[in-house]
């Protein structure tokens, strides 16, 4: 047989090539073995190294043994990758919410396919566990390092176990990279979520006594301009008495009349 290389799949060979390590034929390996016998060195490492592929690899992903083989200008560091990270976060922030998850799924699948040596992201099934797709401990580390550089997030060492498939991992990235909410938008969104008739119906369902016990009745009257005369049913009631301590006029009003008074006054 051909030894250990016989157990390598096409994806394994592609992954090795992408890491800067090429394969050796049986003849090349035997020739190197013969050459090594003529040397006095105690330790030799006969491998085919693709320096161009190494130059395209982020410095943090290079094994220490290979870092001296790549010229400094070609190296890339996590710090240098930060502008790309910022662009990713900003790009997600500029997307409609329904487009963010597909973008993150594409990101995860593309880098997973690259690490595993697949021809394209479509070969990575959304729900297939990473360890069934071909990841081992070494490729899992490279995958995590790649996503760390691209996203700027501190991802756990056991990333593919904590988030075992592309869908779960993309969801986690989405949570971590979600745009910061606008501090001033919460109240506006909450207020805009209800139409006026819905607010009227909601308030009308609350007994007047409960509003008074909760200390909210006075606030409603303030909003309604409690000194004004408001129409209630077929007649009119002066509601300023509530502010002065009188309650008979308020207590004789039904819920709808009170709410109409409060909201009507607030809208003036």
Automatic annotation (TrEMBL):
Residue ranges of domain Carrier in the record: 102-177
PROSITE patterns cross-referenced by the UniProt entry: CARRIER
InterPro entries: ACP-like_sf, PKS_NRPS_Biosynth_Enz, PKS_PP-bd, PP-bd_ACP
Any GO BP annotation: fatty acid biosynthetic process
One GO molecular-function entry: phosphopantetheine binding
Keyword terms: Multifunctional enzyme, Phosphopantetheine, Phosphoprotein, Transferase
Alphabetical list of Pfam families matching this protein: PP-binding
Database matches in PANTHER family: FATTY ACID SYNTHASE, INACTIVE PHENOLPHTHIOCEROL SYNTHESIS POLYKETIDE SYNTHASE TYPE I PKS1-RELATED
The protein, known as: Carrier domain-containing protein
């Amino acid at each position: 047989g051909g030894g250990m290389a016989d157990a390598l799949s096409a994806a394994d060979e592609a992954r090795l090539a992408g890491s800067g390590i090429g394969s050796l034929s049986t003849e090349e390996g035997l020739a190197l073995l013969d050459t090594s016998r003529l040397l006095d060195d105690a330790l030799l490492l006969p491998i085919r190294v693709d320096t161009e592929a190494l130059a395209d690899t982020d410095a943090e992903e290079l094994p220490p043994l290979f870092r001296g083989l790549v010229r400094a200008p070609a190296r890339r560091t996590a710090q240098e990758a930060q502008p790309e990270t910022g662009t990713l976060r900003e790009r997600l922030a500029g997307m409609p919410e329904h487009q963010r998850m597909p973008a993150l799924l594409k990101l995860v699948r593309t880098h997973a396919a690259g690490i595993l040596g697949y021809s394209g992201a479509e070969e990575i099934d959304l729900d297939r566990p990473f360890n069934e797709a071909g990841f081992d401990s070494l490729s899992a580390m490279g995958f995590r390092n790649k996503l760390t550089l691209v996203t700027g997030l501190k991802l756990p060492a056991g990333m593919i176990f904590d988030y075992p498939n592309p869908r779960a991992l993309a969801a986690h990235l989405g949570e971590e990279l979600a745009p910061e909410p606008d501090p001033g938008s919460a109240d506006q969104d909450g207020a805009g979520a209800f139409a006026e008739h819905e607010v009227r119906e909601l308030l009308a369902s609350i007994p007047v006594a409960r509003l008074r016990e909760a200390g909210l009745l006075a606030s409603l009257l303030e909003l309604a301009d409690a000194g004004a005369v408001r129409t209630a049913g077929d007649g009119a009631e002066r509601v300023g008495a509530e502010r002065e301590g009188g309650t008979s006029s308020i207590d004789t009003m039904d819920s709808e009349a009170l709410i109409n008074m409060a909201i009507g006054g607030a809208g003036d």
